[in-house]
Amino acid sequence: MSSITDIPARNSNPAPADVERKPLTKKEIAADHPTWCPGCGDFSVLALYFKLIEKRKLWHEKITTIAGIGCSSRFPYFVQAHGAHFIHGRALPFATGISLSRPDLHVFVFGGDGDAFSIGGNHFNHTARKNIKMTYVVMDNWVYGLTKKQTSPTSPLGFRSKTDMWGAVDYPINPMKQAIAAGATFVARTTHSNPNHVLQMMEAAMDHDGFSFIECLSECVEFYEGAFDASNPRKGGVFKEVPKDHDVTDELAAYRLASDPFPGYFGIFYRNPKPTKNAREAEIIRKSREQVQGLKDWEILQKTFDRLK
Amino acid sequence: MSESTVASPEGGAPKVSRISEAVIRIAGNSQDGIQAIGGFLARLAGRSEQEVMTFMTIPSTISGGPSIFQVRIGSGEVLSAGDEADVLLAFYQHSYEGHISSLRKNGIVLFDSDHVEPRPEWQNSYHHVGVPISNLTIEAIGGTARDKGKNIFALGLIARMFDLNVPKLEKLIQERFGGKDESIVKNALTAFHAGYSYAIGDLIETFRFMDSRKKGSQQVVMNGNEALGYGLIAAGVRFGAGYPITPWSDVMELLRRELPKYGGTFVQCEDEIAAVSMAIGASYAGRVAVTGSSGPGIALKAEASGWAGMAEVPVVIVDVQRGGPSTGMPTNVEQSDLNIACFGAHGDSPRVVLAPANVEDCFYIAIEAVNIARKYNVPVYILSDQSIATRIEAFPEPDLEKVCQDITPDLSPVAEYKPYDLSAEDGVVRRVVPGTRILNGKYPIATGLEHDEMGHPTGSPKLHMEMTAKRRRKLQALARTLPTPKIYGPSEGRVLLVGWGSTQGPIREAVDRARAAGDSISSIHIRTLSPLPPGLEEVFSGFNHIFVVELNDSGIYGYGGQLASILRARFCNPAIRGINKTDGLTWKVKEILAAVKAKLESNGSPA
Ligand SMILES: Cc1ncc(C[n+]2csc(CCOP(=O)(O)OP(=O)(O)O)c2C)c(N)n1
Ligand code: SF4
Ligand SMILES: [Mg+2]
Description:
The structure holds 2 protein chains of 2 kinds. Chain A is an alpha/beta fold. Chain A is built from 10 helices and 10 strands. Chain A has helices at 26-29, 42-55, 91-101, 113-117, 121-130, 175-182, 195-207, 251-258, 277-290, 297-307, and strands at 63-67, 83-85, 106-112, 134-140, 143-144, 150-151, 186-191, 211-217, 240-241, 265-271. The longest helix of chain A has 14 residues, at 42-55. Chain A starts with 25 loop residues before the first helix and ends with a helix. Chain B is an alpha/beta fold. Chain B folds into 3 domains: 4-217, Pyruvate-ferredoxin oxidoreductase, PFOR, domain III (Pyruvate-ferredoxin Oxidoreductase, domain 3), CATH 3.40.920; 221-403, Rossmann fold (3-Layer(aba) Sandwich), CATH 3.40.50; 493-601, Rossmann fold (3-Layer(aba) Sandwich). In chain B, the strands form 5 sheets. A 7-stranded mixed sheet of chain B has the order 12-11-13-14-16-15-21, with helices on both faces. A 6-stranded mixed sheet of chain B has the order 4-5-3-6-7-8, sandwiched between helices. Chain B has a 4-stranded parallel sheet with strand order 20-19-22-23, sandwiched between helices. In chain B, a hairpin with an 8-residue loop joins strand 4 and strand 5 (66-74). The two termini of chain B are 35 Å apart. The chains are: A alpha/beta, B alpha/beta. Chains A and B meet through strand 2, helix 3, helix 5, helix 9 and helix 10 of A and helix 1, strand 10, helix 7, helix 9 and helix 11 of B. Residues 69-72, 88, 112-115, 141, 143-147, 152 of chain A line the site of thiamine diphosphate. Magnesium ion is lined by residues 70, 112-114, 141, 143-145, 152 of chain A.
């Protein structure tokens, strides 16, 4: 009854072993030239992602770059590696599918504030609470860039947009608080105007075994120019790092840091490793497989069918 | 009950009749474990090489309520759960009064005389047999169990009545209750034997099934949801994601329980959008994954399914259909999701839609769906439904060693890779997945934006036309490989019934019955609803009337339901008309036959 569609096996190609491989250069990592507006903060995030790949000697094929929809979410096209540009707001569940089924890959997700906290808001909460291993960088510009200046869930009160011509009336969400409350095990904040800091946060996030979240302020020069000047010393602002004595495992202290009014603090607010879903599922699998040791897959199913007679 | 030989009455005792099949309807409340009796009977039939089909209704409320379980057991072919019962087992007054009409004239109503007061006006039409089931169960088991176990007592009565194989039933009871508290197995067996030794043979005739025609074949017994779940496992699926909803939940619960044994996992998500996205993500990462839902949850998967079509990432989406629209009728059957499965995403969105014809087919179609998905890189919908999901059938045990497949992705390096290669034969490209090194250093992007051959966005009108055609050509290529459905009955005649999905059995039985009465009628069953298989035009040309039998509405224009509309659009053939109903129940054979008659009488004019 079943017509098994046969799929021909691929010829494998001899490839040099990893030890002989030189770390990738920026040229090898860069793909399309970004379509962002000149001066857009997203350029700096991309450049630092390249740096991360270079510095940490990641191979093209060992990472996946995933995004939803938005200006920032165009990210994967600009990276020379396996990547996917998924639908608006759903990058996290898509990335979860990769993370849980392919422990050999680093999963990086990039996106905007609308993608993360509006249409994808619920996925953000659940991916955080499940502690799925991946790194998520939200390029927060306080506005909908791609659709040309509508209010975003992080737009401050009073922000004049095409949907709030009198100024925004809805209270903005605080991404840091959102992440901490949702149970994210790594929560950090940075800004595109401080490249070294961005790289530092990305490295720490990548090394975290769990769901690591970075809010990266990333200015939309087109629709929200100057939004983050107060955090940029070159524009007369202050870049205030998380105090040295802050205990990153203290959830309430992290929450208090997040309450500091704009420009607020930058750095790691919260880092408290706990078992990932990846690890917990692997443990369930290990235990289940103990009972079927030595059996081929079809024999496991046969055992089940024998009970259905 | 088809009787053949009648044994001569011995010593005045009620006679024993040889029968080829029987329909038994058990009516009570869902909390009385009536599903368990049905399950035992079905399993026993499976082990006795008989054919069996069940039908049940369950209340949609948690607290339970009236429920029925109907079992049709036959030594020959069993195509439906039966229009009329030969025996009605009624536990309560409401079960008795509510279901007596489903009993054939002169059928046997076996009732719990502790709860049921027989109605005098029905005494002449049906054989009434009262047994104080509740009290006898309490007496037999004793203790504090009250009448818990009366279902097993009743099973004992039925076993005696139909001379069923007692050792096999005892074994089934032990298997079912074994592993629990010792006393539970003991009580169950005690209740069973109390029922069995009740001298029911003194009150009515008893029966004995003729030997099965299927002797020698090993059978497995399960419902459609189980068959589908195990089929996916056999197909090599090792990742799934879903959100609970009736009647899909059973599939996800099964996969959640079973997949870890195979090194796989199933994730309960925050919603159906997350579920489909996660399954597509896992598929993208290498191995075809599954998601599924029913009713409203299917609507939520629309956007992501369109992405899978555009990005050419495979995924299997199971839709266990129920009554709609909206929350609709959660525990009833309907075939009203064909349109959303075929057309339920924006844009010219390629997808494949399959529908299993019976429980056995649920197993095999799951494998087929996975293989179509991975060969053509498309979303594949499996349209099961509430009736096939919950009904139990026995079918020949699959040769698992042969059927089970390993679909672990091949990660060996490739020289180059164009994910959307326009020159690929039939538009079909073999996917290269993350983790694979590509030696020319050019990596693919899976995308929902219109794209060039590497997956980079384009606004080019030419590329949009070429890529749209490429996505379509894959389905056309698939269609060419599909077999033309076999005609059930002669290839020429007056009426052709066209069915899809779970209704194959009753449609065939209707054909059998009508042909036996001298009518010129045949049927075909379409398993691949999109793309349609080739050769249908020739099949249709052999008949004056083509009636598409569906469990959905007859449509605004009155000529037919969802498949009928697709077939009309495809073949421009006004002989195509619909036979539809929307009562949320499976087809009775007589309903189909009555509808055919009515259609023929109303010749031509839309009903
Ligand atoms: C389901 C759906 N709804 C709406 C859109 C339109 N849309 C695209 S991007 C976007 C908002 C993007 O804002 P943000 O996530 O902040 O990204 P940014 O462009 O600012 O980087 C919207 C509303 C869409 N693509 N899909
Ligand atoms: S619109 Fe704003 S966010 Fe989008 S690319 Fe331009 S500057 Fe960047
Ligand atoms: Mg934004």
